[in-house]
Design goal:
This protein has 285 residues and is α/β, with parallel strands linked by helices. 61% of the residues lie in helices and 9% in strands. It has a five-stranded parallel beta sheet with strand order 2-1-3-4-5, with helices on both faces. Helix 1 packs across helix 7 and helix 8 crosses helix 13.
């Protein structure tokens, strides 16, 4: 995992001083990386000792190794525009920042997530054919996308975004179901508690969250991690939704690849019907 990916994945679990240091390096360019550890301490209002501990907490021997590794990362992302939105920004720049943030977080999620775990979850869904998606807010919207995708290939799929309905669903779920719980923070109470209740009933549960140490992560059988920093509130939800839906689409594509010929015929007929009834076709003159 790249240094930037590590920073983003662990940001919400950092202490306040660590977040200040992380903020500095998340927007760093090559000139900033030429600064000495004393300069960085002065510019961040922290201390040399705090920066050293910060680097070691990320798995580096010290500040020099951290800087060298981060410099290598930046060489592969020289055109990245970091998502710091300011009043008065040029509209074109804002648009570029939105795209840059989304692309950056998808790349970081690709590095953070466990591909073997994605394949394990997909196999489980294929075997059981019934899947529920738990999520509130933006995560609930992503769950609705999951319902549409899996319903399209003949699975029993339902998105649940009402807390009461979530607990009812968890109470009726059994070993023949899979629950996919979505929460960027991993601490959305109804999602965590309903998933934990279903797991006690031996329902296979999957968590899609940004934080490995979250409550949701502790209450699932399989964990799929995104890597979207939460500190920029206005765009964090949007980008976490993009990363979450990409993981669901990966599961869908793996499940769809296992469909037999009969199911493929059914899907093709549905597509033809949709095309005929919902799309306007220009008449040839």
């Amino acid at each position: 995992m790249s240094v930037l990916a590590r920073l983003k994945a662990s940001y919400n679990e950092m202490k306040p001083v660590q977040k200040v240091i992380a903020d500095f390096f998340l927007v760093a360019d090559f000139d900033s990386l030429n600064a000495s550890i004393d300069d960085v301490a002065r510019r961040t209002g922290t201390s040399v000792a705090s920066i050293s501990r910060f680097c070691k907490a990320l798995g580096f021997d010290g500040f020099s190794q951290f800087k060298i590794t981060l410099s290598r990362d930046l060489k592969y992302e020289p055109d990245t525009i970091l998502p710091i939105f300011r009043r008065g920004d040029d509209p074109n720049l804002i648009i570029r920042k939105v795209f840059s943030e989304a692309v950056s977080n998808l790349q970081a999620t690709e590095e953070a997530v466990d591909f073997d775990m994605i394949k394990r979850v997909a196999r489980r869904i294929v075997q059981k054919k019934t899947v529920f998606f738990f999520g509130l807010g933006g995560s609930g919207k992503v769950g609705a996308i999951g319902e549409t995708l899996f319903s399209h290939i003949g699975y029993t799929a339902r998105a649940v975004s009402d807390p009461y309905e979530m607990f009812v669903t968890a109470g009726h779920a059994d070993k023949n179901c899979t629950i996919i719980a979505l929460s960027h923070s991993g601490c959305t109470r109804p999602v965590v508690e309903a998933t934990a209740a279903a797991r006690k009933r031996e329902v296979f549960s999957v968590g899609i969250t940004n934080y490995r140490g979250s409550l949701l992560a502790e209450n699932v059988d399989a964990l799929l991690l995104t890597a979207c920093p939460e500190r920029r509130v206005h765009i964090a939800q949007s980008n976490s939704m993009v990363a979450q839906s990409t993981l669901l689409r990966s599961l869908y594509m793996l499940a769809a690849s296992k469909a037999d010929g009969r199911m493929q015929d059914v899907v093709n007929k549905i597509n033809d019907s949709v095309d005929e009834k919902l799309r306007i076709h220009k008449k040839h003159r």
